[in-house]
Amino acid sequence: MIEVEVKVRADHSKIRPLLEKIGANKIGVEEQSDTYFAAPYRDFAKTDEALRIRSLGGKAVLTYKGPKLDKVSKTREELETPVDEAITAKIFRALDFSEAGAVRKKREIFRAGEITVCLDAVEGLGEFLEVEIDVEEEKYLESSREQLFKFLAQFGVDERDSIRTSYLEMVLKKKK
User: N or C: which end of the chain has fewer CB within 10 A?
Assistant: First the structure.
């Protein structure tokens, strides 16, 4: 699966009423705790990859994110599977993986047609709006990205506002 995603800074108090106005359905709210891992044999920051365990609601998911596929959005291959958080972390440590950093956030999830809309309040970073569409084939990347930017235009957002930097990169930069 390829996740076509665009992230921007946003004031949630202004976005929520607009989501209601366009008829977006609220799916729910999640408290997410992400622990990212660094491989001993390659630098994920240089290869533009990510490996994390996400903990939410007593469950955990292992996610691999491949390199970004364009220069505008955060579009990339994403592979996920449910895991036991503690055992998976122990396996990584046994293989000399180390913790690269952590991101904590509250995520409100909405659905507007085939677009997933997330209002993220990220600890230490502030408020963001993420929109995404999942596609199975690369031939749909450009049309999906155009669809996301057209959707974001309703909120006064355009391509120049897109943030390609991950939350982890932002958290690590802030710590320096």
Answer: C
